[in-house]
C-alpha cells in the first residue's frame, strides 16, 4: 500500500510536536506500507525508514510581499505533484496542506489526524476563527479520522456526530524509552525542585502553578521552580508579578531529551496544570523517567495517567500548593506505588502500538466503500 503523507506540518514545525509524531510513525511503518512524504523542499527532512520516498515542493515565495498570492498560485502545482505520486491513501499531517491548501474529497481517500479541540474550547486563541474553520473543513473532507486519544475521539464525536463511524483512536507513544538521562549538575544537583515543561500561555495554566509555588515559599523556601520552555518575556513576567532575578526560579529554555530526562528523574515532582490537553506527552515522559506527576483533572491527563497522577482542580491554587509541600517533603500519598504504576503505564504507550492502530485504520479504509457526499 502506497501512503502519501502530505507534509504541511514539516513546513510549519520541522521538528518536535506533531512533526515528531509523524516522523515516529513513518519510521516504524511495516514493509507492506510504502511511505511517500510530500514536503517542503526547503526543509531538511530525514527518516530512518529505508523505504521512504521524499518528494519536495517549493513553499517559500521569492519575495515576502508576494507570499500570499504566490502560495495560492502554487496550489494547482502541488496538487498535480501529489496526484503524480500515485498514492493509495493520502494522510494529511495537518488541517490544511502545503501553502495552506484546502483538503478536498477526491479519487484518493483522505486520512487526517485530529489532535484536540483546544481552539474551540478557548476561542480567544483563534480570534479570527481560521483554525477552527480549517479543522472543520478537514473533518468534513476526511474518509477516516485518527484521534490521538480517547478523549479527543469522544470530543470529536460530540461535536461532529456524523463522523463517528469513520473515526478511530491511535494513541501516542513513549519517545523516552531509549533516552539515556544526563545527570543533573550545578545548582540543581543539591536543591529540591518541581519541574514545569512546555509553553505557558492560556490553557497551559502556568499561572496556577506560579501562584501555588509563591504561596508555599515561606513553608518550603528551599523548593525551586524549574521551567523548561520558551523564554519568559517582560509582558509575561509583569502579568505574573515575577521579578527579573526571581530567587528560586530557574529557567532553562529548551533542552535536549537526555537533559530533560535527567531533570525528570531528579525532580521532587513534575507539574502538569493544563486546563485542557489532547494527550499530554510530557506526562508520559515523566512516568518513563520515574518522576511523581502532579496533574490537573482535565480528561486527557486522567486518561493518560490513570491512577498514577496526584490530581488537583486546575483552578484550585490551594490544592496545588498543598501537593507542592508534600512533594518537597517527599510525602505524596502512595508515591512509591504510583511510580511503579507509572513505569508500567509508560511501557504500555509504545509508538509500535500507534503504528499498528494507524495501519489498521488504513487497511479498514481501503476495504470500505467510498463515502457518498451530498453535492
From TrEMBL:
Lineage top rank: taxon: Bacteria
Stored InterPro entries: Glyco_trans_4-like_N
Enzyme nomenclature, EC number: 2.4.1.250
Entry annotated with the keyword Glycosyltransferase: yes
UniProt keyword Glycosyltransferase, yes or no: yes
Coiled coil segments of this chain: none
Keywords: Glycosyltransferase, Transferase
Domain Glycosyltransferase subfamily 4-like N-terminal: 15-162
GO BP of this protein: lipopolysaccharide biosynthetic process
GO molecular function, one term: D-inositol-3-phosphate glycosyltransferase activity
PANTHER family for this protein: GLYCOSYLTRANSFERASE WBBK-RELATED
Protein name in UniProt: D-inositol 3-phosphate glycosyltransferase
Phylogenetic lineage: Bacteria, Pseudomonadati, Planctomycetota, Planctomycetia, Pirellulales
Amino acid at each position: 500500500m502506497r501512503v502519501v503523507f502530505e507534509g504541511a506540518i514539516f513546513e510549519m514545525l520541522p521538528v518536535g510536536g506533531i512533526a515528531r509524531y509523524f516522523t515516529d510513525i513513518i519510521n516504524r511503518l511495516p514493509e507492506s506500507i510504502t511511505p511517500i512524504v510530500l514536503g517542503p523542499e526547503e526543509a531538511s527532512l530525514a527518516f530512518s525508514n529505508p523505504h521512504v520516498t521524499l518528494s519536495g515542493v517549493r513553499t517559500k515565495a521569492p519575495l515576502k510581499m508576494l507570499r500570499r498570492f504566490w502560495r495560492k498560485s502554487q496550489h494547482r502545482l502541488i496538487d498535480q505533484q501529489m496526484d503524480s505520486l500515485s498514492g493509495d491513501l493520502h494522510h494529511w499531517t495537518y488541517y490544511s496542506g502545503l501553502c495552506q491548501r484546502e483538503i478536498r474529497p477526491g479519487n484518493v481517500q483522505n486520512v487526517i489526524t485530529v489532535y484536540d479541540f483546544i481552539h474551540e474550547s478557548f476561542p480567544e486563541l483563534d480570534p479570527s476563527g481560521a483554525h477552527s474553520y480549517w479543522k472543520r473543513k478537514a473533518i468534513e473532507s476526511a474518509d477516516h479520522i485518527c484521534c490521538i486519544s480517547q478523549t479527543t475521539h469522544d470530543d470529536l464525536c460530540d461535536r461532529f456526530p456524523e463522523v463517528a463511524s469513520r473515526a478511530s483512536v491511535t494513541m501516542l507513544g513513549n519517545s523516552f524509552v531509549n533516552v539515556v538521562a544526563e545527570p543533573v549538575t550545578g545548582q540543581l544537583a543539591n536543591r529540591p525542585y518541581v519541574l514545569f515543561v512546555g509553553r505557558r500561555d492560556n490553557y497551559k495554566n502556568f499561572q496556577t502553578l506560579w501562584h501555588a509555588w509563591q504561596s508555599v515559599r515561606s513553608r518550603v523556601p528551599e523548593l525551586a521552580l524549574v521551567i523548561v520552555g520558551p523564554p519568559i518575556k517582560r509582558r509575561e513576567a509583569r502579568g505574573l508579578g515575577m521579578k527579573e532575578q526571581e530567587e528560586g526560579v530557574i529557567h532553562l529554555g529548551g533542552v535536549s531529551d537526555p537533559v530533560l530526562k535527567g531533570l525528570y528523574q531528579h525532580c521532587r515532582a513534575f507539574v502538569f496544570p493544563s486546563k485542557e490537553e489532547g494527550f499530554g506527552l510530557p506526562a508520559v515522559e515523566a512516568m518513563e523517567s520515574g518522576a511523581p506527576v502532579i496533574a490537573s483533572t482535565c480528561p486527557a491527563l486522567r486518561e493518560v495517567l490513570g491512577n498514577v497522577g496526584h490530581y488537583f482542580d486546575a483552578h484550585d491554587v490551594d490544592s496545588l500548593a498543598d501537593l507542592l509541600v508534600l512533594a518537597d517533603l517527599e510525602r505524596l500519598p502512595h508515591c512509591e506505588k504510583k511510580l511503579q504504576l507509572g513505569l508500567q503505564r509508560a511501557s504500555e504507550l509504545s509508538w509500535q502500538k500507534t503504528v499498528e492502530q494507524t495501519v489498521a485504520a488504513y487497511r479498514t479504509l481501503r476495504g470500505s466503500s467510498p463515502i457518498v457526499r451530498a453535492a
